[in-house]
Amino acid sequence: MSEGFRRLARAAGGLGPTFDGEAKAAIEELTAQTRAVGVNLNQIARAMNQGLIPPDPTFRKVLEDIASAIQAYDLVYVSMVARSRKLAVEALKDEQA
Fold first, then answer.
1. Where is the Bacterial mobilisation domain (predicted)?
2. Which has the closest alpha carbon to 16: 72, 58, 79?
3. Which domain holds residue 78?
4. Nearest to 84 by CA among 11, 2, 26, 35
5. Based on the structure, what is the number of domains in the chain?
C-alpha cells in the first residue's frame, strides 16, 4: 500500500514514474555516467576559462557534440515523465475547479 501512495505522490508532484528492476538500475547507471561527464565538463570549462587550454576548433566541435548528446538525453528523460506530469497537472486542475 505504501508503494502505491509513494507512486501517486510522485505523479501528483510531477516527479514522473517510479521505475523498478532493470529499468531502475539502467536509469541509475545512466545518471551516474552523466554526472561523471558533467564533472569532467566543469573541469574543462574551468581550464578553458583560466587559459590553460588553447583555442582549438576540433576540441570545440567535440564539446558541441557532447552538449548535443546531453540535450538529446535530457529530452529522453523529459519524455519519460511527460505523460505522468500531464496527468498530475490535469488532476490538480480538476481538483481546483
1. 37-55
2. 79
3. 2-96
4. 11
5. 1
